[in-house]
Amino acid sequence: MPGLLEGKTALVAGVANRWSIAYSIAAAFRREGATLLLTYQGERLRGQVEELAVELGAAKVLNCDVTNDAELEALVATLQAEFPKLDAVVHSIAFANKEDLSRPFSETSRDGYLLSQNVSAYSLVAMSRALSPLMTDGGAIMTLTYLGATRVVENYNVMGVAKAALEACVRYLAAELGAKNIRVNAISAGPIKTASARGIKDFSKVLDAVAAHAPLKRNCDPAEVGDTAVFLASGLGRGVTGNTIFVDAGFQVMGL
Ligand code: NAD
Ligand code: IMJ
Predict the structure, then answer these.
(1) CB of 49 shorter than 6 A to ligand 1
(2) Residues 21, 193: contact at Cβ < 8 Å?
């Protein structure tokens, strides 16, 4: 049976290791027949991402720190030469200063605030501007968000504000790029034990609370995020844009 993404080329940004949500998305895309392009943040990560790329059967691995406009331009130039048509782009990138994820929110510094906005929200705008000209046959751009964008989640702090901006960016980009049949959506994943979650105070208590209260009585699995990303990237998602889709075992619907 042909895969849902046969004949499509997808760029996935945000694989750092095999626990990265981007890794699960890349694996699901490959399973469905996509040609995979991976980007990583800086030379420090190159070796490990190249190893994962072999496992994933990726066609190309490219450096791109999304805060660096010159690197984004160089990425586009390489793609234009080797993979001129893109069908899907995954943005699975976030960063804030660790101390801003534990001290009181009102103590967030101007620099810390701007850093989290730059890496976690503005980068979606920069990537969309750079890469949408390669999506000549329409396509799908997607990003990863979290419930802390719209609800107060202990310690999420400055990242919650960055995710609120990210979700607004998704709506504005969707409105603009819809004319080119490019859809832009966010996937709001439940808590998953990745490098970005490790070291977060009381993270296992968060996982336990979700499993206790979510309708499905468990945590979400990164493979479920991968399958939702396949849906968005495929023709099955053709009517969906500007949205935030929750893949969280249902947790966000619960009140008391
Ligand atoms: P992760 O640490 O594996 O992924 C974060 C990625 O961001 C890394 O690959 C890192 O290299 C990349 N990155 C950071 N700064 C960058 C820069 N300047 N340029 C390029 N890349 C950069 O952790 P993850 O949990 O897979 O996070 C991926 C996304 O999922 C993030 O947006 C995160 O907010 C979101 N998310 C995570 C969870 C969770 O519980 N883990 C839940 C919901 C949403
Ligand atoms: C992160 C902080 C506080 C509470 C949190 C999280 N909860 C969840 C996360 C409840 C689920 C993970 N998450 C959704 C993120 O987006 C994480 C982003 C992040 C994590 C780190 C840790 C290491 C670091 N900087 C970071 N920047 C962003 O130095």
Answers:
(1) no
(2) no
